[in-house]
Amino acid sequence: MEPAENKNSCNEKKSNWKLAGYISFGIVVTLLWIVLFICGLLIDSSYYRAALNFGFADLSDWLRTIVTFTLSNVALLAFLAGLLGGICSLTSATEGFTLSKEEIKEKIKEGIISPMQIENPFLSSFRGVFVFVGILTLQYVSSFSDLGSIGRTIEQGKVTSEKDMNSFYLDLLDTISDSQSKENLKALWEKNEKESKVTDNNSLLDSIYLYKEKIDSLKRASKADYFAIKSYKDKIKKLRRKLTVPAIADIPGMSSYSYFQFAIIVSLMAFVFGYDPRRFLVFISNLPLPKPKNGDAQ
């Protein structure tokens, strides 16, 4: 038989290695959370969402949209926060993986720890995503707004703004008595009108598709001109920045500060519920969900 001292030493080494592995995993998850949070806070997703909205997106556009768009970004943050909470919970409940299975069962019987605290951390991460969905549910149940009306309101605002600019131009024209100054103002106004028509979405999209066709034809050529391809790609990037994403794809009123609040609240709750799943059950009980009737349970 193997000596007890050697067996204890082997178990201790396994515990240390397992603890080191979970600590390293926790550090990686934390760094990923920080990177994602910075991306959501600083990077405007409209550049990538424009490609999705107008049908010329590639795989990188999809991935960058998922990382930077507020809803998908916060869902990923909740996933990572729940995963980190699960890692901390499992490490703490097992006292750094030093407790044996019998000792863990004894602690569960005594009510010191919950069986959910020693679950796989990835279960906690999925619970974190559900926390994100639950918070959205509370938000929209308490102050639901029709997204269609939001789009109409924005369009009405644009029309009103255009009318105000036209009125301002006509009033300004009436105040000028010098004929040469009037001609200069008219020329400047007409120039701005032409530029605004040139930079509308349809014209921009036509140019983007044209450049993409040129890139494809160059790639199919026997000897590809990489400098020309790069030049066309740079032009496409400039045009993409001018595209206007449809209003329905935006989250009205979501400023950087609002995103900061939203991301922090969701991540904190996901971490807490990942660390102590018993609190998650309290959260679920407070959601405005329909309760089954007595007849439904039979």
Question: Main β-sheet, in a few words?
Answer: none
Contiguous runs where pLDDT drops below 50 for at least 5 residues: 144-161
**SSE class:** mainly alpha
Name the helix and strand elements from N-terminus to C-terminus, one letter apiece.
HHHHHHHHHHHH
What best-fitting shape do the alpha-carbon axes yield?
elongated
Termini gap: 56 Å
Q: Compute the number of strand runs.
A: 0
* Cα Rg: 29 Å
User: Helical content, roughly?
Assistant: over 70%
**How many discrete structural domains?**
2
- Output the number of helix runs: 12
Q: What is the arithmetic mean of pLDDT? A: 77
Sheet-strand content, in percent, reads: under 5%
Describe this structure in words.
- With 298 residues, this protein is mainly alpha-helical.
- It has two domains: 4-145 and 252-285, no CATH class; 147-249, no CATH class.
- Helices cover 77% and strands 0% of the residues.
- It contains twelve helices and no strands.
- The longest helix is centred in the N-terminal third of the chain and has 39 residues, at 4-42.
- The chain is elongated, with a radius of gyration of 29 Å.
